[in-house]
Specification:
This protein is an all-beta fold. It has no helices and 11 strands. Strands 2, 4, 5, 6, 9, 10 and 11 form a 7-stranded mixed beta sheet that branches. A 4-stranded antiparallel beta sheet has the order 1-3-8-7, with no helix packed on it. Strand 7 and strand 8 form a beta hairpin.
Length: 118
């Protein structure tokens, strides 16, 4: 059974930092494109960042220069370092694993809440 377990969410003041982590119980972890998505109250889920096994990254324009995604293929983890946080970054953040070839192999974590507020 595939599990993606997120951790690291919480309450932070504007301008602060948080680091999210996702531990994946996936066979052949390197075959998966790993990503972070978020969903704010009343809004659709949106892409935050993705990373391939080779380290190619993609970021939403709203987080470029502030967030950094990384992965450790040996440990089967993916992280999201979030700096200069803004109130509009408040959302539930979800870890995602998408198979590079088989599109139906697409998995989600349960999410971790990030609240940016003074």
């Amino acid at each position: 059974q595939v599990q993606l377990v997120e951790s690291g969410g919480g309450l932070v003041q504007p301008g602060g930092s948080l680091r999210l982590s996702c531990a994946a119980s996936l066979n052949y972890f390197s075959i998966y494109v790993m990503g972070w998505y978020r969903q704010a109250p009343g809004k659709q889920r949106e892409l935050v960042a993705t990373i391939t096994s080779g380290g190619i990254t993609n970021y939403a324009e709203t987080v470029k220069g502030r967030f950094t995604i990384s992965r450790d293929n040996a440990k089967k983890t993916v992280n999201l370092q979030m700096n200069s946080l803004k109130p509009e970054d408040t959302a539930v953040y979800y870890c995602n694993a998408r198979h590079k070839v088989v599109g139906s192999l697409n998995y989600w974590g349960e999410g971790t809440l990030v609240t940016v507020s003074s």
